Automatic annotation (TrEMBL):
GO biological process: ubiquitin-dependent protein catabolic process
Protein name, entry field: Cullin N-terminal domain-containing protein
UniProt similarity note: Belongs to the cullin family.
A Gene Ontology molecular function term of the record: ubiquitin protein ligase binding
Residues in Cullin N-terminal domain copies: 19-398
Species this protein is from: Oikopleura dioica
Listed Gene3D superfamilies: Cullin Repeats
Length: 406
C-alpha cells in the first residue's frame, strides 16, 4: 500500500464531509493563508480518502480537485477579462504567480494521490496499450492538472489580448521608450506561462508558445524592422547604418535571451538579417567596394561591415572577392615596371606584409557573448583570429601578382 503517514489504517469515511474540509484548505492555499499545521493535517486527509474502507475514494477526490481547478481558473479568467494592455500584464502576472504557488502547495499535499492513483492509472493505461496497441491518455499529476485547466480556461480564451499587450510593450522597447524592469518581467512571465502549462505533454510541448506567441512576435519583428531599416537607410550614412544594425542585432539578441525561449533567438535573428541586411545588400556592397579601395580611411567601417556579413555566406564571399581584386590590382601596378628579381621580391614581400597587417586589423570578428571571465577569453580566442577566407584570398592575390612578373 506504500507509505502510511502517522500509522493510519483504512477507515470508513463520509466522503462529502472529508471533501468539504479539504476544500476549505484549498481555499486557504489560494488566499496564501495556509498554516503549516493544517498543511500536515490535509496530507493525512488525502491518505485517508485514498485508502478509505471498503472502497478507496481516490477517483472521486481527483475528480473533485479537477472541478475545483475548473472553478478557480474560470474565476481568474473572468477577472482578467476586464483588463487591457499594461494593466492586463500586471494582473495576469500577479494571478498566474499566485495560482502557481497555490497549486504547487496543493500538489505537495496530494503526493499520495499522485503516486497511488495517477501513476497507477498511467501504468495500467500503458499496459493496455501494449496489449491491444490502442492509443492511451496520460492522467495528469495534480499540479499539471491545474496547469491544464489554466490553459483551457485562461490562455486559450485570452491569448490574443495577452500577446497584444506583450507585443505593444516590446515595440515600445524597440522604439527606445523607457521601460521598467518590472514590465520586462511581466512580459517574461506571460510568455513563459505559455510553455509552463504544457510541460506535462509527451510531445509538442512548444506548440502553444509557437502558435500563440512566437509566430506573431516574428511577424511583428519583420514589420517593425522593415520600416526601421528603410528609415535609417534614407539618412544615407553607411557608417551610421552599419553601426545601428550591429547594435540592433546585439540588443535584440539580449532581449530575446531574457524574455523568450532560446529556440526563438535564431529565428528572430533571421528576420533581422532579412529586414536590415539582405534588403539593403546592394547599398552595403556598393559602400563596401568604396571602403576597400580607400581602406586606410575606412578601416573601422570595413571592420563593422565584415562583422555584419560574418555569418552570411554570399555577402561575405562577395566582400572577399572585392578585397582580392583590389590587392591584385594594386600589386600588379607596383610590379609592372620592375625588372630586377631582387626588387620584385622586396616589393611583393612589402605588399603582402602591408595587406596582412590590414587583414589582421580589420577582418576580425568579436565574440558574440560578453567575456565575463579570463576563461571566457581563452574559450573565445579562436574567434579573435583573422578571417581565414581573407588570408587565403590575400595569398591567392599574391600568386596572381607573381605571375605578372616577367
Amino acid at each position: 500500500m506504500g507509505f502510511n503517514p502517522n500509522g493510519l489504517e483504512p477507515q470508513v469515511i463520509d466522503f462529502e464531509e472529508e471533501w468539504n474540509e479539504f476544500r476549505k484548505s484549498l481555499d486557504k492555499a489560494f488566499l496564501q493563508k495556509w498554516p503549516k499545521d493544517d498543511y500536515t493535517a490535509q496530507y493525512s486527509r488525502v491518505y485517508k480518502i485514498c485508502t478509505a474502507s471498503p472502497e478507496p475514494k481516490s477517483e472521486e477526490l481527483y475528480a473533485n480537485i479537477s472541478n475545483y481547478f475548473d472553478e478557480k481558473s474560470q474565476e481568474k479568467a473572468m477577472m482578467l477579462n476586464q483588463y487591457e494592455a499594461q494593466q492586463l500584464l500586471e494582473e495576469y502576472t500577479e494571478k498566474w504567480t499566485r495560482y502557481q504557488k497555490a497549486t504547487g502547495d496543493i500538489n505537495n499535499v496530494c503526493r499520495y494521490l499522485n503516486k497511488n492513483h495517477v501513476n497507477t492509472l498511467n501504468l495500467t493505461n500503458v499496459e493496455a496499450h501494449l496489449i491491444d496497441n490502442r492509443g492511451h491518455e496520460y492522467a495528469l499529476s495534480v499540479v499539471n492538472l491545474a496547469f491544464e485547466k489554466w490553459r483551457l480556461k485562461v490562455i486559450d480564451k485570452m491569448s490574443d489580448k495577452l500577446v497584444d499587450a506583450c507585443l505593444t510593450l516590446i515595440k515600445e522597447m524597440r522604439s527606445g521608450e523607457l521601460i521598467q524592469d518590472v514590465q520586462r518581467g511581466q512580459v517574461h512571465t506571460v510568455v513563459k506561462s505559455f510553455m509552463d502549462v504544457c510541460q506535462h505533454k509527451q510531445r509538442n510541448r512548444m506548440e502553444l508558445y509557437q502558435n500563440k506567441f512566437e509566430r506573431r512576435l516574428l511577424r511583428a519583428t519583420s514589420e517593425f524592422y522593415d520600416m526601421e531599416g528603410k528609415r535609417i537607410l534614407q539618412q544615407g550614412d553607411v557608417g551610421n547604418y552599419i553601426a545601428r544594425v550591429l547594435d540592433i542585432i546585439k540588443t535584440e539578441d539580449r532581449r530575446a535571451y531574457s524574455l523568450f525561449d532560446r529556440s526563438t533567438i535564431q529565428k528572430q535573428k533571421e528576420r533581422l538579417v532579412k529586414s536590415l541586411i539582405y534588403d539593403a545588400l546592394d547599398f552595403l556592397l556598393e559602400a563596401g567596394e568604396t571602403m576597400v579601395k580607400k581602406w586606410t580611411e575606412n578601416a573601422d567601417q570595413l571592420n563593422q561591415l565584415y562583422r555584419l556579413f560574418h555569418d552570411m555566406e554570399d555577402p561575405l564571399s562577395r566582400l572577399v572577392k572585392m578585397f582580392k581584386q583590389y590587392v591584385e590590382e594594386i600589386g600588379i601596378k607596383k610590379i609592372k615596371k620592375i625588372k630586377n628579381p631582387k626588387e620584385f621580391v622586396e616589393a611583393t614581400c612589402n605588399h603582402y606584409d602591408q595587406y596582412k597587417k590590414f587583414v589582421d586589423r580589420v577582418f576580425v570578428s568579436e565574440p558574440e557573448m560578453e567575456l565575463r571571465t579570463p576563461y571566457d577569453a581563452i574559450d573565445n580566442i579562436d574567434m579573435m583570429q583573422p578571417d581565414k577566407q581573407f588570408l587565403e584570398s590575400l595569398k591567392d592575390a599574391m600568386r596572381t601578382i607573381a605571375t605578372g612578373f616577367t
